Amino acid sequence: MENDTLVSLEDLGYQGPLLEDGALDGALSGGAASPEFTKLCAWISTELRLYCQLEENVHATNCPSEAEAFQLEMSGLLSELACPYPVLASGDITQRFLNSTDCLLLLTFLVSELEASRMILVNKPEKKNQESGSPMFLELKGICMSLGMSKPPANITMFQFFSGIEKKLKEAMSKVPSHHVGEPLMKKALGPVHVEKIEAINQALVKEYEMRRKMLLKRLDVTVQSFGWSDRAKTHAEKLASVYQPLRSALCTKSNISVAHLLAARQDFSKILRTSSGKIREKTACAINKWLERVPNQSAQHCPPPTPGSSAKHLPSI
């Protein structure tokens, strides 16, 4: 099977060091503790993301001590791919992908998934933008359906199409109170130059917040990993994974905010609510807050009493 796997990897375009004689056997023996093995799995994962809409991503490790992070990420990917092999997708996460037999089975499964994804793309190539449902087409289709418009004829011009949307919008707006939608946040007309600059700013913000989300998700993964360190928690590792992985796979890193959201924003978006306000606290309050309220203020306990003649403004703030 090792030779078949090597041939398949070479056919898929892999050009890493594991193609050399005996290198794959050594990596399979090391399993999750082998950085070379994790690099190969990370490469296959990256290739799969080009053809499948996957939320999970597998990163290569740099040392054996990072094996647990790889096991968690790979377990999430296998869950998303609906892996049929219980030895790979169930049981204690920290005990997965440690022997050569399981690692070879893992590679065989991942390689077959990548091969199947490429075959599907060849046999069923992507259709044109409108037929496959490009974001712009889906947005326009949603507008037409929301306004109750029929399918426009094929020979209609863009001016006629948007004029029809404008007419339907005015009809809909006439049936609701004048302040139902609210005033737009962006009142100035935007030209092509403005839109281009706003798009550039938005792309910079998207990249920034994508990095922040990745950091927060990594912190979440590490925190969940720490829950399984105790001997008692290790007995419930499978139950923890079955609860956590579906929730984790639903958390994505990319933002879907676009210039259209800015144009659609109303003035109430500019009202910034404090995180301690009543409306916000209704959704963020939890049982632990009651315990925090009982904890005495440490700064008040250690604050020295005022000396005679001293001014209150010199006291530390409490």
TrEMBL record:
GO terms for cellular component: tRNA-splicing ligase complex. Belongs to the FAM98 family. The lineage of its organism: Eukaryota, Metazoa, Chordata, Craniata, Vertebrata. Pfam families: DUF2465. InterPro entries: FAM98. This is Family with sequence similarity 98 member A. Residues 297-318 are annotated as: Disordered. It comes from Champsocephalus esox.
